[in-house]
Amino acid sequence: MEMDREQLFGIAFIAIGLILMILPGFASSLILIIIDLLVVVMGANLIYREFKKGNKDLMSKRILAGIALILIGLIFYFGFKHTSFFAGIEFIFMGIIFMKCL
């Protein structure tokens, strides 16, 4: 069984998320801000790729996952104090999306 690129990204994101949760001193505030913005960009990219394919169904898995990523990225960027635990949750969520939805 060969793993595709999205599954490898999913595994990598889950691993990074667990590392950030286990080693909180490893993550600085700048890294967490970059992660939040990355989540927003990834969500926008999912939505863009789905519309580029010609899929206009707003309830498709990829569009909903993209919207969820954008909302989570913005909530973590503006709403929560930046901690490695929340960054770990973001990475795990991104990994799950790559493993299941793509």
Provide a brief overview of the structure.
This protein has helices at 5-22, 29-52, 61-78, 84-100. The chain has 102 residues and is mainly alpha-helical. The two termini are 17 Å apart.
How would you characterize the overall build of this protein?
This protein has 102 residues and is mostly helical. It is 75% helix and 0% strand. It has helices at 5-22, 29-52, 61-78, 84-100. Helix 2 (29-52) runs antiparallel to helix 3 (61-78), helix 2 (29-52) runs parallel beside helix 4 (84-100) and helix 3 (61-78) runs antiparallel to helix 4 (84-100). The longest helix has 24 residues, at 29-52. It is globular and about 45 Å long. The model has no long low-confidence stretch (mean pLDDT 77).
